[in-house]
Design goal:
By secondary structure, the chain is α/β, with parallel strands linked by helices. The protein has 8 helices and 11 strands. The protein has 2 domains: 118 residues, Periplasmic binding protein-like II (D-Maltodextrin-Binding Protein, domain 2); 89 residues, D-Maltodextrin-Binding Protein, domain 2 (3-Layer(aba) Sandwich), CATH 3.40.190. The longest helix is centred in the C-terminal third of the chain and has 11 residues. The two termini are 26 Å apart.
Length: 214
């Protein structure tokens, strides 16, 4: 049976809506009374797994799911061995460098050498500053990255920005955008070649639902 890994959080509703457009219904995952992390589509065509967004490509890479929906930010940070098949056009955000609005810095290159930069995206942040030839110390955090500059632990952060409201409420401003991110359709590479369970037909149907393929 075809298995699809779906992300918890902000991408879930649009992911379910996209799959409903091709006749697969996993809306039970949105029922607050439901505690199941694995459910079958009512038609019996596919199984859905509800996992953390960061774990979607892991389940796909290791073959527990043939398809998955995940943000491009996760793919950039984790570099998993999965096939990136389509830009699904929702979940838009950007990975940005930000500092306190009262700081003297107005570009990433203004940051002092060997300063601290807090981020959940350690690999992306490190690669970005290496490309600038600016040595910094990346401080890994798993939540509330905005507190880095507020508490003085770091001069800057590298974090996802959607509307910018959280930055503004915490008196932070963006300096640079590293890249833009949207939800992506990913597949297990071998499964994509072998085409079990009519996988390629489903992928074609999903691509038809969106306007911007990769």
């Amino acid at each position: 049976m075809l298995t699809i890994a779906l992300p918890k959080g902000s991408l879930l509703s649009d992911s379910i809506r996209l799959l409903q457009g091709v006749g697969l219904d996993f809306s039970l995952f949105q029922d607050k009374a439901n505690r199941q992390l694995q459910i079958l589509d009512p038609t019996g065509r596919a199984r859905g797994l509800l996992v953390r967004a960061q774990d979607v490509p892991v389940y796909v890479q290791y073959g527990q799911a043939q398809l998955g929906i995940v943000g491009y930010d996760v793919l950039r940070e984790k570099q998993p061995s999965v096939a990136n098949l389509a830009d699904l056009g929702f979940g838009g955000c950007r990975l940005s460098v930000a500092v306190k609005a009262t700081s003297p810095y107005r570009s990433a290159l203004d940051l002092p050498a060997h300063c601290r930069v807090a981020s959940k995206f350690v690999n992306c942040a490190q690669a970005y500053f290496q490309n600038l030839d600016l040595p910094v110390e990346i401080v890994p955090l798993s939540g509330s990255v905005e507190l880095g500059p507020i508490t003085g632990m770091s001069e800057a952060i590298v974090d996802l920005v959607s509307t910018g409201k959280t930055l503004k409420e915490n008196n932070l401003i963006e300096l640079e955008v590293l890249y833009y991110s949207t939800a992506r359709l990913v597949a297990h590479p071998l499964s994509y070649r072998v085409n079990p369970y009519g996988l390629k037909d489903l992928i074609d149907q999903l691509r038809d639902q969106v306007a911007t393929p990769v």
